Amino acid sequence: MKRRTVLSLGALVAAPLPAPPGAPGPTAGRTRLLPGRYLDNQNRTAGRTRLLPGRYLDNQNRTAGRTRLLPSRYLDNMNRTVAYLRFVDLDRMLHMFRITAGLPSTAEPLGGWEAPTVQLRGHSTGHLLSGLAQAAYHLGEADLAARSAALVGALAACQAPNGYLSAFPETVFDDLEAGRNPWAPYYTIHKILAGMIDQHRLLGDATALAVARRIAGWVALRTSRLTREQMQAVLHVEFGGMNEALADLYELTGDPAHRELARAFDHDEILVPLSERRDTLAGRHANTDIAKIVGAAAQYRATGDPRYRRIATYFWDQVVRHHSYVIGGNSNAEFFGPPGQIVSQLGENTCENCNTYNMLKLTRRLYQLDPARTDYLDYYERALLNQMLGEQDPDSAHGFVTYYTGLSPSASRKGKDGLVADPGSYSSDYGNFSCDHGTGLETNTKFAEPIYDIAGDTLSVNLFIPSEVDVAGTTVRLTTRFPYDPVVRLAVAGTVRFTLRVRIPGWVRGPVLRVNGVPVAARPGSFAAVRRTWRRGDVVELRLPMTPRWLAAPDNPAVHALTYGPLVLAGRYGSNPPAVLPTAEPRSLRREPGAAEFSVLAGGTRVRMSPFLDVHHEHYNVYFALPPARRRPGVVAAYPLGDLRERTRRWPDAVLAAGAAPGARGIELDGAGAHVVLPPGLPANLTSLSVSVWVRLDSIANSARVFDLGFNPQSYMFLTPRTGNGTARFAMKLAGMAAEDFVDAAVALPVGVWTHVEVRVADTLRLLIDGELSGQNPAPKLNALLLGATQFNYLGRSQNPKHPYLHGAVAGFVLTGAAG
Ligand SMILES: [Zn+2]
Known about the structure:
It contains 20 helices and 34 strands. The protein is of the alpha+beta class and 820 residues long. The strands form five sheets. Strands 12, 13, 14, 15, 16, 17, 18 and 19 form an eight-stranded antiparallel β-sheet that branches. Strands 20, 22, 23, 25, 30, 31, 32 and 34 form an eight-stranded antiparallel β-sheet that branches. A seven-stranded antiparallel β-sheet has the order 1-4-5-6-11-8-9, with no helix packed on it. A hairpin with a 2-residue loop joins strand 4 and strand 5. It starts with a helix and ends with a strand. The site of zinc ion has 5 residues, from helix 19. Residues 287, 352, 354, 435-436 line the site of zinc ion.
């Protein structure tokens, strides 16, 4: 618990905790006070007496607001991870730390990303520190606290000889500073530092704080020798949340040196554009940057500098609203795409789970800064339910997790063990240790942490997770099967006056909140607050009606995901994944036995739709095309291109770019960058279409484009005058498809003459040259509908910047289409 929270607790100090279900002892491992006068006194007077700052107050506040999970999916997940925390061999986790420190170790080396030759080694031991601290704190079980203390003590012994604590030698930092790009050494230091901070913050371990201070001292020594420019170069290599951990350390120590040291990790390349509200995320490694912004939010707390807050809130808005899939995750193959690209960025490697782990940390921090914003909590709930709960294999006794949550129609969460490179595979005991194995340990031990907040004499109920929390000398108990059941109940165990503040989600229609049967105002997207003297037996009941809703993707109005309250539903495909996104018939949607279970006709068969988090060990599909409104065939857009004007008056005019110029019959293109830009959205909501265009080649280059309508080099439809096969080709593809659909002409397009080309996209792909059928593909997998509202539409230019520009001229571009 952070210092500021401690000071604002007011009357809500702790009463002794009842034993959590299954706990071996009533208070074992949970507080540092031993039975005696102090403990008795604290317990008796809690809620009436204010302790002055010091060890006793620290201990007391660690107990106040502590939340215990009650039986639920969340507790099941946590228990599996805790079983791993109990199982994992600490000597093996310490092996390379001891070797690096010159201490003896005969333990068997670890595998995967912790292997003795892998530069990232040590990061998992940092996550283990955090996971153990969270588990020991929330479960209150003595053996977990003892394991925590043993691990902290052993790491302190590794740090003792020379103040350096790592599982790899310090020479890796020499490499980093010399620009030799080692694999993320500060990333690993961050995990260990954060783990030590968690050990102190949650369990009061003084050794952990001393180790953390000494890590900071080493970082200060290392970084103070660098100029600002040299440090910015160092920051090009992923460094996790060093700024976050150092700002957090400052809050524990009050030492301004720690606050200033956090600033040394301000990475201008990402922070400056964000501070100017510019989204430069496309093409950047997502998890590398998200961690830096979690740090910015921590630095705002530590410094009060509003620039950090501006950066963090703008980043959150952009990522959540413009870079996130419906399940709350982001990134395709670990990188951000351009804002708004979702269906055009589907793949088996979407949504690295670390990204969402970090986005949830950022969300938690921003919500605490602005506790009126329920949209932060709506996002937290959506990402937690639909991505993070489901990253863990429910059939794994040790809570193994996937690395990505893939969202292409061929994606699955497969049970293959140990191979990080294999998307959809799960981690393992000792052979994996990916970043997601590490963040998965933490994710599954901290479900209890964000459920409630206590400020002054107000208890906020943020999330509807079955749990108990101690407030104002009594216990509040939340019971529910939400989101499998719409009713959430809160009960208060004793007589005490406080304000209960309950989140009403933004997605709900017609919520009903009752206190002892009496309705209370509840508006979606706000908190409902009730201040009264609560008595034993009082019951608060919140009803959150849920209905199935199709949500459209931002880059394709025809593609939707099915939601039910906060849940995303996925089609279950067993071992037979669809080749492309199936088209669903919304009117065929019907309920099936079981909570939140549905089925729908999609791609001609009835498909079971289940909560995504429940779909494991089989193929699934989240995004579906919905049939658009029926539309008769007609010209959608027509550009004669002599004068650029769009003749149907429905679309903006074409734009000449990079030296394209009007000529006698069309637009002249120099083959060196000149091209024509057509407006975004042209082929949206069409189930069949045809494109016709005139082209005159002055010279021919493989892979140049007559036209290319698309989003990126993975999502497109194009016509090229010649491929490596020697003939003209029309092709189309949506990201996530294994291969493109194409049709080859019989010949390459001729040079030196005007040629008319027409492409017809329907059940069969047809390519016509000067009115003659030149090639066809009778069984394309993709259809026009799925390609959607293409964002980048060019004549003479490819989506792929490596391809040559067209050399010649284009004219008479006409797009014709129909729907239904
Ligand atoms: Zn990761």
